[in-house]
Write a structure and sequence with these properties.
Radius of gyration: 13 Å
Strand content: under 5%
Shape: globular
Oligomer: single chain
Number of strands: 0
Mean pLDDT: 82
Largest sheet: none
Distance between the termini: 31 Å
Low-confidence stretches: none
Helix content: 40-55%
Length: 75
């Protein structure tokens, strides 16, 4: 199984959306869980998020430039 960052359903870097897609989870619930864990663990999950953001590839949306497609619309 390959995990990608989401290019269309991202709030910051697409990491939570990509993890939710890969593990068939509710993305909103995962984002809330991440925020609560980050709050109680002194920001350690934020470091994990940044590492995943740097390591995970962004899923190609098929338009040739995955960074151009935001929210399902191309500029």
């Amino acid at each position: 199984m390959t995990i990608y960052r989401s290019s269309s359903n991202k709030v910051i870097g697409g990491v939570c959306a990509g993890l939710a897609d890969a593990f068939d989870l509710n993305v909103t619930g995962l984002r809330w869980a991440f925020a609560l864990v980050a709050l109680f663990l002194s920001g350690v999950p934020v470091l994990v998020y940044l590492v995943l953001w740097a390591v995970l590839k962004e899923r190609d949306t098929g338009d040739g430039d995955p960074a151009r497609q935001i929210g399902g619309c191309t500029p």
